[in-house]
Design brief:
single chain, 441 residues, alpha/beta, D-Maltodextrin-Binding Protein, domain 2, 3 domains, 16 helices, 49% helix, rod-shaped
Length: 441
């Protein structure tokens, strides 16, 4: 009885081996899942020059991402061209920035992707004058610092209009410095490319003695530069009481893109697009509700994450779970799904494998039983027959001592029944004339 109890408590080696293998695979899968790097808790975003809208928008991005436990370090720059250069330089540490359409070179797509267009940046041409000047000759003009999109766009427009830059006194001032100098009478013209939300724009539109010049040939500029858009600034929109501007003004605008490095973690890209929808999705002077962010590819291709967001919305897990919990679960699923594909056939086939192994322990003895049967049938030698009978007894003892689970004990009883059948049918006295008869006579 004690031996029987010990047999029941004895673990089956095959089952434990399979369980150990399965556990090891799961452990490796979990290790792989956690080895996949989680997103960093902070990254750097370039914001542009003081006085521009980039900084104000970046501050709002900070607030949105802070709710998800991610902080943004803001870094000032000369403008959109400088932002693109910083993004392309892996050593700069900058991972995200705003960049105007038309500022990114073709080869930048190897390292940078767009998360979509997010707002308009009109070209503002402010003049300290009562009437539009007939010529820019001799005027002191600010077109923005080197590396800014304002400077590059201004120079391009001057070239296509045949303006001799040697006749213009150009100075390199950022938008805030330009506004102060123009209102102080230290500048004649300020050329800036800024979003409507930039404080500088409102200050200059309301400043006494400062006039906003429009683009009567806006359609021509848009035809020549398809990345530009024609806009209309309504009369009095800056100050109804003072009626500033005093008439409708036709403007030309570029679209600002939210650009990131390709190696920015996908989860952070999703967060940035969600923040863009919250920050830029409301109606404004030049846009309708939901117009931005938009899945537009102008200079750079859309990232896979941005395209997925525009087509299907936020990732399913991020809709119901906190950001970091969703990301951990997502990482686990990425590793566990292929593991399930491996483990399921293993676990589903384990019972059949176990049954085959239990039956094999008994069935392989039938080879010995068959051999003993053949030898008993063919031999007439008494000693040889006795030796075979002893082997038959030993074979029966082996089956008796074999440790089989209760579900498979019937295999052992069946085998012993076959041994008894062999004894009854083959164990007979040798026929007359055999060596046994001669020995007894």
């Amino acid at each position: 009885m004690t031996e029987y109890s010990e047999q029941r408590r004895q673990p089956h080696r095959l089952a434990w081996t399979a369980l150990a293998i399965g556990s090891a695979v799961v452990a490796v899968g979990l290790a792989v899942a956690f080895w996949r790097p989680l997103p960093t808790r902070s990254f750097v975003m370039a914001t542009g020059a003081p006085g521009g809208a980039y900084l104000g928008f970046a501050d709002r991005y900070q607030e949105v991402l802070a709710r998800n436990g991610v902080s943004i370090e803001l870094r000032s720059s000369a403008g959109a061209f400088d932002n693109v250069a910083l993004l392309q330089d892996a050593g700069s540490g900058v991972s995200a920035a705003f960049a105007q359409a038309g500022t990114a070179p073709e080869f930048a797509a190897d390292e940078l992707v767009s998360l979509g267009t997010v707002f308009y940046e009109p070209i503002w041409f402010f003049c300290r004058c009562a009437e539009p000047p007939a010529s820019l000759r001799g005027l002191r003009m600010s077109v923005g610092p080197v590396g800014s999109s304002s400077r590059e766009i201004a120079l391009a427009l001057f070239r296509i209009n045949g303006i001799d830059l040697s006749e213009v006194d150009l100075v390199d001032l950022d938008p805030l410095q330009s506004a102060r100098a123009l209102m102080a009478g230290e500048l004649d013209v300020a050329f800036v490319v800024l979003a409507w939300e930039a404080p500088v724009v409102g200050d200059l539109l309301r400043a006494p003695g400062v006039r906003l010049l429009g683009f009567p040939r806006a359609d021509a500029y848009v035809a020549l530069y398809p990345h530009l858009t024609k806009l209309r600034l309504p009369m009095g929109v800056a100050d109804l009481a003072a009626n500033r501007p005093p008439e409708d003004v036709t403007l030309v605008a570029a679209k600002a893109n939210l650009v990131v490095r390709r190696d920015l973690h996908p989860a952070l890209q999703y967060l940035l697009v969600q923040a863009a929808a919250e920050v830029h999705g409301r109606p404004g002077i030049f846009q309708t509700a939901g117009q931005f962010p938009a899945a537009e590819e102008i200079d750079l291709p859309l990232s896979a994450e941005a395209r997925s967001y525009y087509q299907r919305g936020p990732p399913l897990l991020q809709r119901y779970l906190p950001f970091w919990v969703a990301e951990i679960v997502h990482s686990l699923l990425l590793a566990l799904i292929p593991l399930v594909g491996i483990l399921y056939p293993l676990w589903s086939g384990l019972p059949q494998l176990y049954e085959w192994q239990m039956r094999r322990r008994v069935y392989r003895l039938y080879g010995e039983l068959k051999w003993i049967e053949r030898e008993l049938h063919d031999t007439r030698d008494v000693e040889r027959r006795r030796a075979l009978l002893r082997q038959l007894d030993q074979l029966e003892e082996r089956v008796f001592r074999m440790r089989l689970p209760n579900a498979y004990t019937g295999l052992g009883y069946t085998f012993r029944l076959h041994i008894q059948t062999l004894r009854a049918s083959r164990i007979k006295e040798p026929p007359a004339g055999s060596r046994v008869d001669e020995a007894g006579s």
